[in-house]
């Protein structure tokens, strides 16, 4: 079994994890679970004692992930993502339900729908969403294809909760899409 040591945490983060555990343990379907978790995460966003200074450290080459918590039973995990201006994900979807909360700055998201295109498929952009500091959004597969970037001028920091232990899986991504897509 793979174990992950989370070096350091905060009192507020531990409290948030306990709140999320209670919500997940209700055993609701993925969509309602994600919405409950989004509602729990929102009041903590932007609190100066939520994260440690090292959780704000970025990487000049790509957006950076800091693991904050992995539940021992694999039920959920939390990460902080640090985005320098312009940093972007590929187009992807997810292995499980998830919540994105913006702790600092804003996340710029383009959502897509997969449509048949002859023998293959293409991605049609359906919505552009900006999630600002203090806001959280929930998603549950299927229909969760998106691309995220930091379109602001400062560093963005977001807290993500996933309905799986992504430290065991290695990623929150189910599939990367290299199909033709609306820009
Ligand atoms: Fe994503």
From TrEMBL:
Transmembrane regions: none
Recorded coiled-coil stretches: none
GO terms of molecular function: dioxygenase activity
Top-level lineage group: Bacteria
InterPro entries reported for this sequence: CDO_1, RmlC-like_jellyroll, RmlC_Cupin_sf
Key words of the record: Dioxygenase, Iron, Metal-binding, Oxidoreductase
RNA-binding among keywords: no
CDD domains, per the entry: cupin_CDO
Classification via Pfam families: CDO_I
Family of this protein: Belongs to the cysteine dioxygenase family.
Official protein name in the record: Cysteine dioxygenase family protein
Originating species: Streptomyces pyxinae
Source taxonomy: Bacteria, Bacillati, Actinomycetota, Actinomycetes, Kitasatosporales
